[in-house]
Structure formats: structure tokens, C-alpha cells
Recover the amino acids of this structure.
């Protein structure tokens, strides 16, 4: 068939435009993710420092103020900066490659990036100069310098640009492809964007209407009970904001890397929707021990908290079934024979296995935290940071590593510098995470309080924590080494001269790959309304009460 | 519209739902039958006036009123104040196997309180009184520890908490 010169020219232009689009989304992905991983590399050694100080073995580095600044910085950089920037970068890549349409507005995306980056720099400079040693939870009436809160606000507002971008990308695709199922990888990403909009609202209200006005002297007092209630709105759902990208990798990348198929596309959607609905309106297990909320509300939130078990168990089933499928395709026989046949040397598969193992134990610990009565035994003990290090630092972050190992060759078009090193790094992270969190859980049960630089309680009980704290130092050292190996592998990939053989990203296909799915599993509208209603029920009165309780306000305190 | 769920996965989801319902049932049972509730009294106090007779709270947390007492019903009530960086009184002795009701307020920032190996655990939030009851099951000397970051001296904030056999307990 003859092609006219006109057609050839337009095809060429299209090809060039496509190349430009790919370059734009890749650049957005890289810049965002490098801010995240840069913050990670900066924050990582601080963890080792804190564990070393706590053991009491190194009097030379003992300092209460450096310790408080280090915990605050480590928390903010790991929990907010690493997670959010990684998620944004991954999202831009996913939107472009899964939807295969022209990016909606690169200028809008870059604006969000710069707003969030300026906010991060502002907050980080306050943290590193000892003007914001208020922990990543920044509970008033202890107050940081105003620049810290302004930085946090800008950071969050910048991330909202990403949320809007993801939702618009999905909406545009649906308009262009009526009746078709949004690719699962993008559906999960858009759900997570919507989740973050809802999640971040609580802390944002606290920062804008309580913390910034008081820190600037526009208001004299605030109600710390109200501030904690706002923060609980953000503090639990943020965990699912971190976790969903890990699940996205498991559902949409892992099965293909394992050499098989996704067991069920629809159940993935069900899991994402349930994670969304049962994440935000359930934050009161963070307030179980607080006097400013009544028992009935706490019980109500407990029900919602436990519902999260359902999508978590669904994900466990679907992902393990997908892995079994791939193991059997590779010749695995018998009840457990497929496990040995898995591609243990593929970083995505290896990370997925290790991540699920950590999720199993971390999830069990979470049941204790969420329990209406049992929570009293572990509240604010070492058990709590042990739990979230296992679930976030372990389960989620190991999948961020896996995603990066998968993404970097596709973005840079260069072969991953060293796959064996990547696998060693993942094993080290897994081992280090256990060596840190297992003793930490145990001393939590023995009453060791969190966020303490020392334990001068003149008590045999406090002495009994020390051996466990010494073991933790080895785990922390292993984690630091592992984290640096990860960053080094990415840096060396940028400089690798060997080209990647196949840089096209391809997502996993399901056993029954759906062309269309029920409307509720393909759209965000209904679920946003459902979320609004559920939020009104669970947070409406508990927030409203502060306007007629008449609590005497608290003035600002230093730390 | 077709919606594929594998039959095995369907059974599994039923099992997960059953597990979740069981978790609900156990918790509601213990809350109702054993009165196991977290501290939730929603009672306000003026944290800047704890040392004064007048105002919200009315002198309950004045220095002379702190410590362990029996109330009009003969129940043990421990009144405490949290202030950077200590709990007052600095030493408390309670009997084993008898309910102790704690009432505590803070004069400054957020604090937390926990006696290891017990469920004697509460937040102390400025502007609110924390009220909870617990029974100690084992005797011994424990630290009563601040477990919520309250400033650079957080690690140094504690009281001594002794749980003694009932026959050794004197008020």
C-alpha cells in the first residue's frame, strides 16, 4: 500500500511528539523520585545514630537536642518526603505508559513539583538547624518555627497538583475510551491520588488554622485536643497512601516479571476501593488513649480499622496465587514445589516475597494496635515505631526499591548496573529490618517508651531493655549499608554504557483480562461521595464538639 | 457485566469476613462484660490554673491535693500532675489487686504516662483531665514513665511506682 508524503510527515511529527511526551514524563518521574531517594539517603544514617544513642554504649555521641532533631528529621524525610516524591514520580511514569495519551499539562505538574520541593527545603532547613525538633507528628502546644509549618503546607499543596493531574489523566482516558476498563495500574494510582487528597486534609486544616496562626503570633492559644483529632485524620490513612504503590507493583508489575499472569484483575480493584473507603474515617485508634474523645466514637472507628483486614487479605491471596501460577508455569510441582521455582533472582519478585513476609507479621502487630482494649498495653511504647518500621520501612519501601530497579532501566534506557547487587541489597534490607524491629517489638512489650534518648529510670526493668537495644544497632548498620547500595546502584545505572535491551514498560496481564468492569470498579465519583458521608459520620461530631466544649486554650511552648 | 472471582478466593473472602466479625465480637464482649474501655472522659480543665482554687477544675490539682486517697466511696483515687520533666508526686505506692483510679492533668505540653507490664497508660492532653482505672496484677518497683515526646528532657521524666502486697499497704 502506498503512503503519501503527507502521511509520512505526519507520522514523523507524531513520533517526535511521542518522544517529547515520553521525555517529559520521564523527566518528571526522575526528578520527583530523586528528591525522594535523596531525602532517604540523608535520613537513613540518622536512624542508626538514634539506635546507637539509645543503647547508651556511646556516651561521646549522647545529646538530647541532637537526638530530638535527628528523630524529627528522620521522620519527616522518610515518612513524608521519600514516600510522597517517590509516589508522584512513579505516578507520572504510570500515567504516561499505561494510558498512552499526551500528558495533560506538564507545566502544571512541574509547578506542583517546585511548590513541594520549596516546601521540603523550607521544612528541612528548620529541622536541620534545630528550629523544629517537634517530631514528624508535631503535636502542639509544643511549637516549631513558623517556617517549618509553612514548609509542610507548601509541600502538601505541591503534592495536590499531582493528585489533580492523576485524576484528570484518568478522566481524559475514560472519555476517549468509553466503556473500557481503566488499566488496573492507573486505577490504583488514581485511587491513591484521591486518597491523598482526603488524607492530607486533616493535618492541613490543623497547620493552616491552628499551627501557622499561633506560630506567627496571630492567635494566642489553641486546643491541643482538636489538633490531635485533626492529625489522627491524616495519621492513619497516610499509611495506606504509602502502601498502595507497593500493592500496585505487586498487582501490575510483579506477575509479569515472575513469568506468569495476575490471578485476578477485578479483585485488585476491589482491594483498592476498600483500602480507600476504610482508610480515612478510622483514625481514632491513634487517639484510643486520649481524654478528649468519648469511648463510643473510639469503638466506631475500631470497626472501620479492622475492615482494612479484608483488602489486605485479598491482596495476599491474589498476589500469592499469581506467584504460584508463575511457579507452576516454570515447572513447580506439588503443594510447595512452585515456591522453589519462583524467579528469586528477579528483584521485583524477590522484593514481593520479602514484602509479603513482613506484611504478615506487621499486620499481626497492627491488629494489637487497632484493638480497643489491648492498645493500652503497647500505646507509645517501642512496639509502635517497631510496627510502622516493619510495615512502612519494610513492606512498602522494599517495593519502592523494586519499582526503582524496574523503572530505572526503562527511563534511562541503560541496563541496571548490577542485578545481583540489587538482590543482595534487598536481602540485606529484609534481614536488617528484622534485626531492628523484632527486638524493638519485644522491648515495647517490656514497657520501653518511644522517642527517648536515654533511659535513666533507675529500674531493673529499664536495664533489661539494653541487650535488645544492642542487637538493634547491628540491624540498623545493615539497613544503612543496604540503603546506600540501593542509591549507588541507581547512580551507576545512569552512568552505565550498556543499553537496556527492552526499555518498553509492560504491565502484567490478568488470567481473565477484563475489557470492561462494573462501573463502580472503574470510577472515583461514587467512592468520593461515600467517603464524604462516612467522614461526616465518623469525624463530624468529634470535631464539632470542640466548638462548644469551651476548652481553655493552650499557649505556645518551646521544646 | 462479567465479574470474575475464583471459587476458592470467594470461600477465602468468607473466611476473612468471619475472622473480622470474630475480632469485632471479642472486642465488644470485653468492652461490655469487663468494662475494658480506653480513658475517654472528655472533661476540660484550665491547664494554666491548676495551682489555683478557682476556675475550671476548682483546685483538684493543687499541690496539697495530689497523691493517693480514698474517696467517699472508699475507692482509691490517685491525683497527679504532669509537668516538664516530672510527674507529681514523684513516688507513689499502691496495693496489688485493688482498682486504682487515676486523675491527671498537665500544666504545660502533651505528656503520656505508662507503667511497664500494665495497661496503666494514658495521654495527658493540655486542657483535659485524663481519668482511668486499672488494677495491678504484680508487685514490684516500676518506673511510671512519660511516653509521649514532651521536649528535649522527655527521657528524664518519670516517677517511682511501687505495687505492694495488700497487707503491706498503708494509706
Amino acid at each position: 500500500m502506498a503512503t503519501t508524503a503527507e502521511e509520512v510527515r505526519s507520522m514523523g511529527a507524531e513520533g517526535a511528539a511521542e518522544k517529547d511526551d515520553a521525555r517529559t514524563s520521564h523527566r518528571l518521574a526522575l526528578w520527583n523520585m530523586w528528591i525522594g531517594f535523596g531525602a532517604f539517603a540523608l535520613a537513613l544514617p540518622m536512624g542508626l545514630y538514634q539506635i546507637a544513642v539509645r543503647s547508651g554504649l556511646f556516651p561521646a555521641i549522647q545529646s538530647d537536642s541532637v537526638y530530638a532533631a535527628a528523630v524529627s528529621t528522620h521522620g519527616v524525610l522518610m515518612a513524608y518526603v521519600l514516600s510522597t516524591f517517590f509516589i508522584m514520580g512513579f505516578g507520572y511514569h504510570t500515567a504516561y505508559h499505561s494510558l498512552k495519551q499526551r500528558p495533560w499539562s506538564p507545566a502544571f505538574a512541574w509547578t506542583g513539583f517546585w511548590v513541594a520541593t520549596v516546601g521540603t527545603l523550607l521544612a528541612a532547613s528548620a529541622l536541620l538547624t534545630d528550629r523544629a525538633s517537634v517530631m514528624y507528628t508535631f503535636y502542639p502546644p509544643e511549637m516549631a518555627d513558623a517556617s517549618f509549618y509553612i514548609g509542610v503546607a507548601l509541600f502538601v499543596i505541591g503534592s495536590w497538583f499531582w493528585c489533580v493531574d492523576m485524576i484528570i489523566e484518568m478522566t481524559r482516558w475514560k472519555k476517549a475510551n468509553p466503556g473500557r476498563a481503566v488499566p488496573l495500574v492507573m486505577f490504583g494510582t488514581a485511587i491513591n491520588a484521591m486518597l491523598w487528597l482526603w488524607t492530607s486534609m486533616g493535618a492541613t486544616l490543623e497547620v493552616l488554622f491552628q499551627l501557622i496562626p499561633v506560630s506567627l503570633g496571630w492567635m494566642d492559644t489553641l486546643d491541643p485536643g482538636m489538633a490531635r483529632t485533626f492529625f489522627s485524620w491524616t495519621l492513619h490513612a497516610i499509611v495506606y497512601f504509602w502502601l498502595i504503590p507497593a500493592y500496585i507493583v505487586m498487582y501490575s508489575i510483579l506477575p509479569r516479571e515472575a513469568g506468569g499472569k495476575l490471578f485476578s484483575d477485578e479483585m485488585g480493584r476491589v482491594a483498592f476501593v476498600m483500602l480507600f473507603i476504610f482508610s480515612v474515617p478510622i483514625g481514632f485508634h491513634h487517639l484510643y488513649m486520649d481524654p478528649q474523645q468519648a469511648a463510643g466514637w473510639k469503638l466506631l472507628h475500631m470497626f472501620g480499622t479492622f475492615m482494612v483486614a479484608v483488602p489486605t487479605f485479598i491482596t495476599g491471596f491474589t498476589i500469592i496465587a499469581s506467584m504460584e501460577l508463575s511457579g507452576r508455569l516454570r515447572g513447580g510441582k506439588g503443594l510447595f514445589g512452585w515456591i522453589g521455582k519462583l524467579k528469586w533472582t528477579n528483584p521485583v519478585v524477590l522484593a514481593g516475597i520479602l514484602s509479603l513476609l513482613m506484611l504478615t507479621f506487621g499486620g499481626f502487630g497492627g491488629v494489637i494496635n487497632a484493638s480497643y482494649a489491648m492498645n493500652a498495653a503497647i500505646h507509645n511504647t517501642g512496639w509502635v515505631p517497631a510496627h510502622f518500621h516493619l510495615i512502612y520501612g519494610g513492606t512498602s519501601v522494599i517495593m519502592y526499591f523494586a519499582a526503582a530497579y524496574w523503572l530505572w532501566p526503562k527511563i534511562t534506557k541503560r541496563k541496571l548496573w548490577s542485578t545481583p547487587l540489587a538482590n543482595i541489597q534487598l536481602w540485606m534490607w529484609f534481614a536488617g529490618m528484622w534485626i531492628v524491629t523484632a527486638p524493638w517489638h519485644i522491648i515495647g512489650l517490656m514497657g520501653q517508651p518511644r522517642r527517648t534518648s536515654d533511659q535513666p529510670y533507675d529500674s531493673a526493668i529499664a536495664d533489661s531493655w539494653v541487650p535488645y537495644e544492642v542487637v538493634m544497632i547491628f540491624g540498623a548498620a545493615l539497613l544503612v549499608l543496604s540503603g546506600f547500595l540501593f542509591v549507588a546502584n541507581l547512580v551507576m545505572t545512569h552512568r552505565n554504557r550498556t543499553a537496556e535491551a527492552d526499555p518498553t514498560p509492560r504491565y502484567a496481564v490478568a488470567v481473565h483480562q477484563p475489557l470492561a468492569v462494573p462501573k463502580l470498579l472503574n470510577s472515583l465519583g461514587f467512592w468520593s461521595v461515600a467517603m464524604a458521608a462516612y467522614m461526616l459520620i465518623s469525624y463530624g461530631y468529634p470535631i464539632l464538639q470542640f466548638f462548644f466544649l469551651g476548652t481553655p486554650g493552650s499557649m505556645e511552648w518551646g521544646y | 457485566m462479567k465479574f470474575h472471582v475464583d471459587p476458592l478466593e470467594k470461600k477465602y473472602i468468607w473466611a476473612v469476613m468471619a475472622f473480622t466479625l470474630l475480632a469485632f465480637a471479642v472486642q465488644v464482649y470485653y468492652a461490655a462484660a469487663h468494662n475494658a474501655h480506653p480513658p475517654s472522659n472528655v472533661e476540660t480543665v484550665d491547664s494554666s490554673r491548676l495551682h489555683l482554687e478557682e476556675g475550671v477544675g476548682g483546685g483538684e490539682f493543687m499541690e496539697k491535693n495530689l497523691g493517693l486517697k480514698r474517696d467517699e466511696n472508699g475507692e482509691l483515687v490517685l491525683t497527679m500532675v504532669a509537668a516538664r520533666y516530672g510527674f507529681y508526686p514523684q513516688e507513689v505506692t499502691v496495693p496489688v489487686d485493688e482498682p486504682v483510679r487515676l486523675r491527671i492533668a498537665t500544666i504545660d505540653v502533651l505528656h503520656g504516662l505508662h507503667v511497664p507490664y500494665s495497661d496503666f497508660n494514658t495521654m495527658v492532653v493540655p486542657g483535659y483531665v485524663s481519668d482511668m482505672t486499672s488494677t495491678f496484677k504484680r508487685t514490684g518497683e516500676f518506673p511510671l514513665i512519660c511516653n509521649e515526646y514532651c521536649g528535649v528532657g522527655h527521657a528524664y521524666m518519670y516517677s517511682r511506682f511501687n505495687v505492694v502486697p495488700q497487707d503491706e499497704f498503708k494509706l
Chain A touches chain B through 85 residues (CB under 8 Å).
